[in-house]
Q: What sequence folds into this?
């Protein structure tokens, strides 16, 4: 075994405990066990003080408990540790959104998506904020980019269809909704929206 | 006459095992090491602690208050080999085990090894696997664990053991009486003393690999204070030790290794012959003795401190064939290599064809060395074949006599080379390094299916599949390993995939097991379960 190989094994093994704690924290967060999750993230942060991951995790835990100030502090630390952390910006955006600061939330979601156009949390957050602000054009672009990379993601497809509808682009909306129903014929939300779209289209043709 | 060594056995618990711990200035860790040796499931122990002239540790040893502990408190620092020899002199166990003063055994360590040696095999030596625990040394001297990995889990390979130690000293147990055959630890070595011993043990016994993780040794991140690591930085010192080990020949008979004789063919002792001798010394790891058939006048001029050289006096007008015949008369290797002065000698120069010869079932066959030509001809044979040719055709030159005797010569095929497993492993690791994870994963999987070391290879394959994006195969392989012998790496991988599949309870269960291992609690749980 050459020394480079040895070094890469050492690097891998030196972050192992951190990875276990971070992963465990994420799992506990997903099942809503906030106390355990917090404990894991705090230990992970003590092992790798320069990693943003544990602070993002702590931010999410605080957010889930509606401790918005704590969440903001944690996400800000994560941003400082890694100014390119898409998750940290998404977290800050969520905090802003919860504080009803929609323009700021919108900007932060956009920043997050610039860093990682694959970030589904930011994408859906951007969609919600857009709805709250009634400004849809920029969001459509990001949803399209995301769907190019993840064709068949029905929740994002649905969001895009809804946006097209809000923008009165009924044909595009209808096409996407039919695609969703081809993938998931039992999708009731899509069925309902399609009904609305068909209705709008019928009204449009009637006007003409 | 009964052996006094076994008189004090407590037969209720099987044969006594002597655990040897040499310590030097590691007070802060000794207590944990010693405690792990004393808190074994297997209780018939003698634990010998030797203070090799370091800080006083009497308080630590005395606080154990355990009659099984023997304490040798020496004021003068004499080195680890000396300390182990001192401990061996006091050892009363049927078996000897070793523990470094900063490492720990898990509670089943001794039990598993004794069980392997007593019940599962005819081997007189056994070894387990250990975690290498990467840690950060905190200001108070405590160790913060960053990760634990099984860096090597290699089944025993005698040929490899002659070249490289793949049985960690702390994981080793051997019959005490083997020391009478191997000799004591070499006190002239300052590094690799463990390899020197395992190499010598390989002359007398097979090793049983117990693929269970039964302890851990610590590797501080960054600058390491280990004396052996510091000494390794001095390349010339390192080579001095390696050469001393390679040329060590325990007293015969060797039940597990057949000796090799090398006959150097030279018209005279000149610079070229001297260089060839030096090259043989530097590049040969298989045990050998070198025979130098030369006129007495040349032998008188020869000044060498090279070990294992046998001078063979021949007449001033003797032919090269006569020189070979004279050497052949006295050499006692099962295999004989004939090599001319000036032959280019590189690593594996003789081990490759020799390995093919050792494993060849064809009789009357020898192997020509890779760089052998009609002018500079070199080959290795079974001694009986060479003798047969020389006795039958003594007047012919050596090569013609072999031909006349019907002894065929060929070069080894690639599939006859030693270290096939290691070569494949290296190729897979290089493929991995190039970022071709899928190909590397498939190579590791192929090695796992077709060679030994299955768990180790499956672990590497799982990691590579994960990096290649095939999380399903990574999970499947990790699960196979985890069912047999979970490691932090494989538990983490399986958990990541379970998390991706939203099977959060499974992921949490796996991660908690990994966390227990990292915190050093897993083995206590195992122990508690074992003890009901």
A:
């Amino acid at each position: 075994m050459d020394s480079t190989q040895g070094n890469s094994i050492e690097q891998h093994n030196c972050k192992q405990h951190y990875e276990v704690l971070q992963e465990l924290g994420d799992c506990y967060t997903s099942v809503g066990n906030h106390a355990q999750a917090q404990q894991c993230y705090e230990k992970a942060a003590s092992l790798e003080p320069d990693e943003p991951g544990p602070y993002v995790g702590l931010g999410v835990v605080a957010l889930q408990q509606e401790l918005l100030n704590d969440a903001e502090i944690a996400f800000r630390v994560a941003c400082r540790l890694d100014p390119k952390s898409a998750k940290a910006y998404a977290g800050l955006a969520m905090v802003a959104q919860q504080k009803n600061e929609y323009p700021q939330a919108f900007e932060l979601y956009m920043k997050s998506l610039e860093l990682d156009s694959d970030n589904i949390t930011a994408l859906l957050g951007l969609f919600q904020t857009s709805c709250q602000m009634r400004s849809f054009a920029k969001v459509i672009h990001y949803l399209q980019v995301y769907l190019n990379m993840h064709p068949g993601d029905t929740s994002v497809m649905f969001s895009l269809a809804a946006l097209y509808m809000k923008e009165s682009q009924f044909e595009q909306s209808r096409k996407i909704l039919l695609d969703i129903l081809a993938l998931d014929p039992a999708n009731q939300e899509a069925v309902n929206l399609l009904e609305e779209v068909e209705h709008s289209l019928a009204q449009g043709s009637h006007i003409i | 006459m009964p052996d006094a060594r076994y008189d004090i056995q407590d037969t209720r618990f099987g044969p006594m095992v002597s655990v040897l711990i040499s310590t030097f200035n590691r007070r802060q860790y000794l207590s944990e090491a010693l405690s792990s040796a004393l808190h074994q499931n297997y209780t018939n122990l003698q634990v010998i602690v030797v203070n090799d002239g370091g800080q006083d540790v009497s308080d630590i040893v005395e606080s154990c208050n355990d009659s099984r502990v023997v304490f040798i408190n020496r004021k003068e620092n004499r080195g680890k080999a000396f300390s182990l020899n001192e401990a061996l002199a006091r050892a009363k166990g049927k078996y000897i085990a070793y523990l470094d003063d900063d490492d720990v055994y898990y509670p089943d360590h001794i039990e598993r090894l004794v069980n392997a040696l007593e019940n599962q095999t005819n081997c007189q030596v056994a070894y387990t696997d250990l975690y290498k625990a990467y840690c950060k040394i905190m200001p108070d001297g405590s160790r913060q664990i960053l990760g634990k990995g099984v860096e090597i889990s290699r089944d025993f390979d005698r040929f490899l053991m002659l070249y490289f130690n793949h049985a960690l000293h702390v994981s080793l147990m051997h019959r005490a009486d083997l020391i009478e055959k191997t000799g004591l630890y070499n006190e002239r070595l300052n590094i690799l003393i463990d390899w020197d011993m395992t190499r010598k043990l390989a002359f007398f016994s097979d090793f049983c690999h117990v693929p269970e993780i039964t302890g851990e040794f610590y590797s501080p991140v960054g600058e390491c204070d280990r004396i052996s690591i510091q000494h390794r930085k001095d390349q010339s010192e390192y080579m001095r030790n390696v050469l001393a080990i390679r040329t060590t020949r325990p007293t015969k008979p060797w039940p597990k290794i057949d000796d090799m004789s090398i006959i150097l063919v030279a018209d005279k002792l000149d610079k070229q012959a001297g260089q060839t001798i030096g090259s043989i010394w530097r590049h040969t790891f298989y045990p050998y003795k070198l025979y130098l058939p030369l006129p007495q006048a040349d032998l008188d001029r020869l000044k060498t401190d090279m070990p294992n050289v046998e001078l063979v006096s021949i007449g001033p007008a003797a032919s090269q064939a006569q020189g070979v015949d004279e050497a052949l008369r006295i050499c006692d290797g099962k295999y004989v290599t004939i090599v001319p002065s000036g032959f280019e000698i590189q690593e594996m120069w003789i081990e490759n064809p020799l390995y093919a010869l050792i494993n060849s079932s064809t009789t009357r066959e020898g192997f020509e060395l890779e760089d052998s030509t009609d002018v500079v001809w070199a080959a290795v044979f079974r001694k009986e074949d060479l003798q047969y040719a020389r006795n039958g055709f003594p007047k012919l030159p050596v090569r013609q006599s072999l031909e006349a005797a019907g002894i065929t010569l060929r070069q080894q095929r690639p599939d006859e080379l030693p270290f096939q497993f290691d070569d494949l492993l290296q190729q897979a690791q290089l493929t991995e390094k190039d970022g071709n994870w899928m190909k590397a994963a498939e190579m590791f999987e192929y090695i796992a299916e077709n060679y030994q070391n299955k768990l180790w290879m499956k672990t590497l394959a799982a990691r590579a599949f994960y990096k290649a994006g095939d999380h399903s195969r990574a999970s499947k392989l990790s699960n196979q390993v985890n069912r047999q012998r979970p490691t932090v790496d494989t538990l983490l991988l399986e958990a990541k995939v379970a998390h991706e599949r939203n099977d959060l309870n499974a992921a949490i269960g796996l991660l908690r097991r990994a966390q227990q291992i990292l915190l050093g609690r897993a083995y206590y749980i195992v122990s508690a379960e074992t003890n009901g």
